[in-house]
Amino acid sequence: MALLTKFVAMIVGKEQSMSTSTHLKISKLTPGYWRATLSNPPAHILSDSNDLSAALRCLFLLITSRMNATRRAATLCRWLSVASLLVPLTCGSKTALAVFAEPAVFASEQGVLDILMIAKPKPIPSISFTPPDGGGAVNPIGWVYEICRRPASGDDCPPGAGTEADYGGVRLALQQGDTLKIRLINRLPRIDPAKLRYVTNPGGDNLHLNPTNLHTHGLLVPARAPTPTDPSLGDYIFVSVFNSANGIPAPQTHEHGSIVMDAVDYRIEIPKNHPSGLYWFHPHVHGLSLNQVASGLAGIITIGSVGHYARGDAVHAPIPEAQVRHLILKDIQVLAAGTIRFHRGSAPVANGEVLNQQDSDFCAQFPADASEVRQGSCPGTAHGDDNYTGGRWYFTVNGEPYPAIRMTNPDGEVWRLTNASGNVSYDLHLVNDADRTPMIMQLLAVDGVSVHLPGNTPTGTMVELTRARFKVVECPPAPSVDLRSLPVCVTELVMMPSARAELWVTYRTPEGRVAPPPTGATASFKMVGLTTGTTGNKWPAVDLAKVEFAQAGSQNLVSSALDIQGDALAVIQPTGTFSAPVPGASPAPLSAGCKPLASGHRRRIFFGFEDVAVNGTQALGYEEVDEHGAVDPGTQRPLTRFDPSQTVICLPLGPGQTPVHETWELVQLSTENHNFHIHQTRFQIVGPSGRPPAGGIFQDNIPMGVAVPSIPEVMEKQNGVCTVDQWRNGQCSSRPIVIDIPFSQLGEFVYHCHILQHEDAGMMAKIRVVPSPN
Fold first, then answer.
1. How far is CA 294 from CA 288, 323, 371, 573, in A?
2. pLDDT in tens, 215-248
3. Contacting residues for 236 by C-beta, under 8 A, at least 6 apart
4. Which of 189, 185, 207 is nearest to 197 (CA)?
5. Residue 487 pLDDT more than 50?
6. Residue 675: which of 529, 534, 468, 528 has the closest Cα?
């Protein structure tokens, strides 16, 4: 005990002068790790179980409870280096997994959340990259949002508690009727123009200065532009915020929005009838969206709570927030020193440098052999002229590569998943480690809107409504009570960039029945590898997290399924956001070219190339068709890359300023999958069987599938992309996806492919919604 007393005294006395460089190898060992170890130590995390070890851990918590993560990590490594004989736990041990931790939360108070958000570079302590040249471990520099409640003065967040700057992202927790205020500051660094892809595109002259902005993805709010009397913005993307330290932007044509220096203010009013659900925020500067999201600039937003729509089937009570996890999926490519071929030529890179102009061929799709273990990352490889050997591609959950998720509640948990990657599509499975089979999960919500399906909905209709985003299976056993919505069970999720899904997860037998887990039951949450077409990407297979089922005791709220009162039904009720008159809209004359879509007509959007002979010229085309499927003369626009000065679609609200529904056809011309997304609204798939059932499933992004050409020219001379004429004459098979879109929000916004490389290349177009004249 005397030895222990001297040791603690040494730690307390030396902590202030410790070097933070020692934290590199133990960055995964957060306070959550130690608290979980002390309260309920799982065998795969604990290195030992003797009383002295537990006492030291407890003392560590007491001593470091007020330190930030970097100082805490340095303290721990110092502690362990001195007391290695007492605590046989090694910094950087491969057997010690970081325990899953929830994102930091900023919640509204008295109806307002007012924050300062600073986009800036910062090392990622949870990723320790070891270069192949024998150099020391490196924490790659990501780009993060430093967030705090807005101070009384100044544009800096105070150090210490109350300020968060996590690469994994934070959660902004709002309620219906709240006001979200954000002051966005740009302190991002300049980018080497040689390492950017789109600087030579129209409007790309200033991209190397790294302007930014903000999009609150999925929120059903107006795209409000600034005015002389109110310079704040709503969810409006046509603005570029430059960091004056990087230089003054040069005048150019084809500007992607108004130019603002250093800071801009957003004010977003959340409607009182807004669905409870999961949303997110990220930059949306055309030409740089991928670079900024790939470097880490993203976080999540929640409106309301899961308990608003999910209750137990055994006890009709809301699911507590304590049983809800938020999982933010991100990826980041880290390079070894050398020379890399970029789009405009080769350039040198340093150890630990982040490749934010991402390459989907960074690592092989599958492990080379059984010895290659992919837990949270995969090794860089050589591919054609690109050589990423020595680098590493990390896939993180809330910023941690391969954390441990320990489930203890016998009623299971709700997992809220966000694909916050810029390009990556995840084919997700929860695989039982005992029998290597995918486990069944209940699908609760899609893209921020909880589902509602009548009890007689066939499984085939469920598949049709989700466009193969999920592998839908029967839910065993049949619920013992009447539920408000038919449960939807899945064993696989294909989440393209921007997708969100909310799931009920619990232990199940191989037959899919909910049951207490056997001792030591575990599962692997993994992406199994996904190919997105003949000319598409080959996304790698990587294990994302280890799940330990440590549930004990009897179930309380849930017997076999959650009871969902879906907002998919609520939004179409008379008081719902897709039916009620639009707040703030008043009659106004229509401008030239702005008119309602004629009765029975549809809008048709083509996804392809501006020039099929030139690779990477992603673009959108447009036309209208009448009730007989004939093209409406004068409405055709060829496939054209994004031009912010051109409004492709302008439409008014319905009579009495009510939301207006339109039918669109989405036509895929590429042999590579695209991901359609539209701002400020949702849509429903209209299948061959007609309109979806009452409620159904609303989405804000959807996989397009791929075109199937029947002539060799498409693959040999056209980069795998058909022309519109080839589609019309049957040389390219691609059945249109028909969707119903309700427009309920005013303003200028966009629709685009949410694979951000495609969006940055030009696969985006502007749309405008205006008040009705009557």
1. 10, 30, 29, 39
2. 999 999 999 999 999 999 999 999 999 999 999 9
3. 223, 224, 225, 226, 747, 748, 749
4. 207
5. yes
6. 468
